[in-house]
Amino acid sequence: MKINSIHDIRQLLLNYHSVIYTRDPQADIILMEEELSMLKETGLLEAEDYYACKLVLQAEQRKLE
Length: 65
What we know:
- 12% of the residues are buried.
- Helix 2 (25-41) packs antiparallel against helix 3.
- The protein is 69% helix and 0% strand.
- By secondary structure, the protein is mostly helical.
- The protein has helices at residues 6-15, 25-41, 47-64.
- It is built from three helices and no strands.
C-alpha cells in the first residue's frame, strides 16, 4: 500500500477496524502513532509501512507547529 497522506493512514487503520477522529489534529496524530506502533509490535503491520506512516505523521506534525 502506498502511503502518502493522512488519508492513506486513516484508510490503512480502517483495515484494522480502527477509526481515529477527535477533531483535534494533534491528538489524532498521537493516537495514530500509538495504534501504528501496536500494529507493528504485534506483527500485523510491516516495518516498511510503519516507517512510511511515521514520515507522513511527522510531516503533518510539522505543518501544525
